[in-house]
C-alpha cells in the first residue's frame, strides 16, 4: 500500500524551531514528528510513503535516506512548484499513488498526532465499500472548525459545514484519509481544497464515510498545541506501553527519557515531560510539562515548566523558565535568568530576564 | 598581497535578513556586502582573500566560487571550530597569510563600510616602517567605544582606552588593519582579542601606527546603521562616480537603481534609496531612505521610508511602510496595510496593520 503525507510549507507557526529544521523533522516525544506517522504506516504494510512538500527538499531528502534504510520502507518526495492546496498534491503524486493494484492509499496531514489506528481504518473502509473514508475526531467547540455531518449508524457522510453557527454535530476532519485510486480521477492538477471541493462531491455520490478516531488527536503545528499534544501522547503511552515511561522517586506522572540522557540527583521530573537524546539534566532540577530536545544541558537547580527547550541549548543554574518559553537551537540562558514566555531565535545568549512574552531575535 | 576578512558568526543583529543568507552576502548598495571589500582589495593588488568564518561555510563557498571567476581573485575560507575572537582567526589562517614574500597583509572587519583607501594605507604603512597600521575614524561620542590615543604628528599609537570617562581623544578603531607577517608571531591559536591583547603589545614596542580614515565609515551590522550607512555610501558615490546614480524628474537626492529594475510613472524616489536587480516599482510609488532588494515588487501608490524590503517581497497598493520596517525574504504586505517598524521573518503575509514596532514571526 502507499501513503501520501501532506507536509506543505514553511512551518512558520512552529518558529523558532522550524528555523533550524523543516517542520516534519522537528522532534516530538524524542523523535522527528514525521517518524511517528511513517512507523505507524509501515506497521500496517505500507511500502512507500510520498511526502508532498514545497520547501527545502534537500534537507528532507538527506534525512529520509537515513530512515529508509533503518525502517525498510521507500520514502520519496513530491515537490510542488506552486502551492497546490490540500488536494492538488494528490494529483501531482498520482503516478506514485496509483500502482495498478487497486488498493486504497492513505493521506495524512503531517501536523496531526494520534494513535494512528490504521488497521481499524482499513477494516472499516473495506466493510462499507465506499470510495473514501475520512477519520473524524470529537471536539468541544465545533463552531471553530469544519464540521462533518454524518449518519450515526453507518458513518456515511451527508455534508460538511464550515464554522457552523448553530449546532450540527461535533465531529471534525482529523486529517487522516483512506482513499480508493478512483478519487484521483476527481482531482485536477491545480490548487484545490480536498475539504471544500473533492469530499463534498464524493459525499453527494454517497460514497464518503467517516470513522470516529479512537484515542487522542492533536494538531501540533504550533507551540501551545505541541505541549498539550505531548501530554495526550504520554497518556496514551501509559496505557499502551507503560514500560517505555520513566520511573523512580524523581518522577511524577508521565515522563519519557531517552536512554542516552542523564538525570542528576535530587531532581523532580514530570508530569508530561520528554527528555531527548544526549541531554544532561544536572542535580536539583525541576521539569514539568516541557520538552527538552537533543543535546540540551539543564544546569543545577533550574526550574522549567510549560516550555520547549531547543536542540543543544543550555539553561543556566537557578534559571526559571515558564509560560510557553520556546528556545530555538543553540540558545544559552545564563544563570539565574527568568523567562516568562520568551520566544528566542537560534544562536542567542539570554543574559537578562524576559519579564513578559516577547520574541528575542 | 593577501587579506583576511573577519566574517564571524550568526549575524543575529541583522535578522531577519540573515535568516536567508549569511551576513556577508546580504546586499548593500545593490551588491553583497562583502563584495564591496573584495573589489577594493583586488584594486590594490590583493591576489587572495581569506574569509574567517564559523557558520554556514557551504552557502558562502558556493557563492564565492562565482565571485572568484568573475573577479579573478582567489577566495578561500578559514573555518573556526570554536570562536577565536578577533585575533585567533589570524593564527588559524597563518599559512595562507604568510607567503614568504614579506608583504604585509590586510585584515578587515566584514561589517565595516568605508571608501577603503587601501592604496593610501599601503603608502602610510611603508612610510612609517612600523609593524602594524590600524585605520581609525573620528566619532562624536568616543565614550561609547575603545579610543585610540595617538601622537598627532606621526600617528604612533600610545595606548588604547576602553570607553573612557574623561576625554582622551575621539578616534576609534575602524576595523581595517595592515599588518606585517611578524604580527602573526604574537598571536596564539586560542580565543584572543586583537584590540585588548595584541595591539597594546605592539604599541608598547612603539611599532603600531594609526591612520585617520578619510571619508565615511559605518558598521552596518544592524538595520538602523545599515540605513545610515546607505546614505553615507551614496553621498560618497555622488562625489566619486555620480554617473552611477539615477537622475530624472522622479529622482530626489542620491538614488541608486540597478539597470534591471523597472520604475513606473509618477514615482518619487529618494533621497538615499537603493533599488536592486529585477525590482519592479509600480506607478505612483514614493520611496525614501530605503533599500529594496533583488526581485521585490512595490505596488502602485505605496509609500516606503526608512525601511528595508527583503528579496522577492511585495509591498501592496497604497501600503505605508515606515520607521525601520524590515521585511525578510518573500514577505508580502497586502494592499492598504500600514507597518510602523514591523520586523517580519521570511515567508510571511501581512494582512493587518502593524501599529507599533514588533517582530512578526
UniProtKB/TrEMBL annotation, chain A:
All copies of domain Mannose-1-phosphate guanyltransferase C-terminal, residue ranges: 251-360
Domain Nucleotidyl transferase: 2-233
GO BP term, pick one: GDP-mannose biosynthetic process
Molecular function via GO: GTP binding; mannose-1-phosphate guanylyltransferase (GTP) activity
Keywords, alphabetical: GTP-binding, Nucleotide-binding, Nucleotidyltransferase, Transferase
Enzyme Commission designation: 2.7.7.13
Keyword Nucleotide-binding applies: yes
Sequence similarity: Belongs to the transferase hexapeptide repeat family.
Task of the protein: Catalyzes a reaction of the Smirnoff-Wheeler pathway, the major route to ascorbate biosynthesis in plants.
UniProt name for this protein: mannose-1-phosphate guanylyltransferase
Automatic annotation (TrEMBL), chain B:
Residues covered by the Nucleotidyl transferase domain: 2-233
UniProt superkingdom: Eukaryota
Pathway(s) where this gene product acts: Nucleotide-sugar biosynthesis; GDP-alpha-D-mannose biosynthesis; GDP-alpha-D-mannose from alpha-D-mannose 1-phosphate (GTP route): step 1/1
Chain segments annotated as transmembrane: none
Entry's EC annotation: 2.7.7.13
Stretches assigned to the Mannose-1-phosphate guanyltransferase C-terminal domain: 252-360
GO BP: GDP-mannose biosynthetic process
Enzyme class: transferase
Molecular-function GO term, any one: GTP binding
InterPro entries documented for this protein: GMPPB_C, GMPPB_N, Mannose-1P_guanyltransferase, NTP_transferase_dom, Nucleotide-diphossugar_trans
Keywords in alphabetical order: GTP-binding, Nucleotide-binding, Nucleotidyltransferase, Transferase
Keyword match Magnesium: no
Described purpose of this protein according to its UniProt entry: Catalyzes a reaction of the Smirnoff-Wheeler pathway, the major route to ascorbate biosynthesis in plants.
Family affiliation: Belongs to the transferase hexapeptide repeat family.
Protein name: mannose-1-phosphate guanylyltransferase
Species this protein is from: Miscanthus lutarioriparius
Amino acid at each position: 500500500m502507499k501513503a501520501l503525507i501532506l507536509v506543505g510549507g514553511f512551518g512558520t507557526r512552529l518558529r523558532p524551531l522550524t528555523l533550524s529544521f523543516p517542520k516534519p523533522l522537528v522532534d516530538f516525544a524524542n523523535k522527528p514528528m514525521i517518524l511517528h506517522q511513517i512507523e505507524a504506516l509501515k506497521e500496517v504494510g505500507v511500502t512507500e510513503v510520498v511526502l508532498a512538500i514545497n520547501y527545502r527538499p534537500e534537507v528532507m531528502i538527506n534525512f529520509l535516506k537515513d530512515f529508509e534504510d533503518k525502517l525498510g520502507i521507500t520514502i520519496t518526495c513530491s515537490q510542488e512548484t506552486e502551492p497546490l492546496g490540500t488536494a492538488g498534491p494528490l494529483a501531482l503524486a498520482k503516478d506514485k499513488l496509483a500502482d495498478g493494484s487497486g488498493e486504497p492509499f492513505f493521506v495524512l496531514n503531517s501536523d496531526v498526532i494520534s494513535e494512528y489506528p490504521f488497521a481499524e481504518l482499513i477494516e472499516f473502509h473495506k466493510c462499507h465499500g465506499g470510495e473514501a473514508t475520512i477519520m473524524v475526531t470529537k471536539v468541544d467547540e465545533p463552531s471553530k472548525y469544519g464540521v462533518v455531518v454524518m449518519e450515526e449508524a453507518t458513518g456515511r457522510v451527508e455534508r460538511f459545514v464550515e464554522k457552523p453557527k448553530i449546532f450540527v454535530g461535533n465531529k471534525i476532519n482529523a486529517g487522516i484519509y483512506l482513499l480508493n485510486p478512483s478519487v484521483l480521477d476527481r482531482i485536477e492538477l491545480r490548487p484545490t481544497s480536498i475539504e471544500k471541493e473533492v469530499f463534498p462531491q464524493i459525499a453527494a455520490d454517497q460514497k464518503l464515510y467517516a470513522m470516529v478516531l479512537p484515542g487522542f488527536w492533536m494538531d501540533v503545528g504550533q507551540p501551545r498545541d505541541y505541549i498539550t499534544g505531548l501530554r495526550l501522547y504520554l497518556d496514551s503511552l501509559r496505557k499502551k506501553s507503560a514500560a517505555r515511561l520513566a520511573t523512580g522517586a524523581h518522577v511524577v506522572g508521565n515522563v519519557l527519557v531517552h536512554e542516552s540522557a542523564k538525570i542528576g540527583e535530587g531532581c523532580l521530573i514530570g508530569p508530561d515531560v520528554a527528555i531527548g537524546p544526549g541531554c544532561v539534566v544536572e542535580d536539583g532540577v525541576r521539569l514539568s510539562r516541557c520538552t527538552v530536545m537533543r543535546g540540551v544541558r539543564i544546569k543545577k537547580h533550574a526550574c522549567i515548566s510549560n516550555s520547549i527547550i531547543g536542540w543543544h541549548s543550555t539553561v543556566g543554574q537557578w534559571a526559571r523558565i515558564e509560560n510557553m518559553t520556546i528556545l530555538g537551537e543553540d540558545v544559552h540562558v545564563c544563570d539565574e535568568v527568568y523567562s516568562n514566555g520568551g520566544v528566542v531565535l537560534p544562536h542567542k545568549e539570554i543574559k537578562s530576564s524576559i519579564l513578559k512574552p516577547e520574541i528575542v531575535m
